[in-house]
Amino acid sequence: MKVASWNINSLRVRLPHVLEWLDKHQPDVLGLQETKLPDHDFPADAFFDAGYDVRFSGQKTYNGVAFVFRDDSVGQPDELVTSLSEYEDSQKRIIAGTFGDTRIYNLYVPNGQSVGSEKYEYKLDWLTALRLQVEADTKQFDKIVLMGDFNIAPEDRDIHDPERWNGKIMCSDAERGQLQQITELGFTDLLRKHNDSNDVFSWWDYRMGAFERNNGLRIDLVLGSAAMVSVCEACHVDSAPRALDRPSDHAPVWAKFAQ
DNA sequence: ATGGTGGCCACGCCA
What is the rounded CA–CA span in Å between residue A82 and residue A96? Predict the structure, then answer.
C-alpha cells in the first residue's frame, strides 16, 4: 500500500496538478488538505475518470480535507469520521477512515498564526483533542497512519534556518510538545526512518523566492504505528510539483508499505 | 522592523 498527503491550497486551482501526480505516482490513498471548496463543488467526476473514488469534508473558502483512493486495491473506507470527538469545531480539518485493516487519519492542523494568539490556543486545543481521539483508536487498531499538514516542524533539522525560526509559530516548544505527546502513543515520523538529512522540506513560502533558495520547513508528515513502521519500505517528499507553474506552496509526501 | 506572494472574492482574511 502506498499512501500520500498533499496540502494543495485550493483544489479548483490545483486539480490538474493532482491528476497529473496521481497518474505518475499511483498512490492507493491520497489525503488532500486545503481543498477550499464546499462539498457540492467537489470535482468527484474528475477523480472517477482517473480510476479513483473520493470522500471529502469541505467548506467555502477555507480548510477542507479529502481522501482520494483506489477502491480496487483498498476498498471502501469504514468508520469514516469528519470531526474530532472531543472538540466542537466548525472548521473542516479532519477525515479518517479504515481501509482494510489500516486506520488512516488525514489532517489539516490549524496554522496558529503566531505564538500566544487566539489561533495558537486553538491549535494547541485542537491537537489535544486529536491526541485523545488517536489514543482511543490505538486500543482498537494496530495499523494506524496519521498524515497531513501538521503545521509543526518536529526538529531543528526540519527548518532551513533554525535560529531565525527559534520559538516561532510551527517551531515553538508547546507545539512540538503536543506533537511529541502524539508520537509517544507509539508513532514514528516515517521520513526519518529513511532519511536523516537537514535539507528535506515540504513547505516553502510563496514570497522571497523561498523555494529556489530551499528556504523551507518540513511540516507535512506521515506518522506510522509500530505495525506500520515494520512494513514501511520508503517515505519521500516529492518537491517536483512545487516547481510547476502556479504551484501549491506544499509538496506531497508519500510512504510505501509492504502490506 | 517591515513586507514580500497567493487564494478567495470583491475587501480583508488566512496562510
Answer: 7
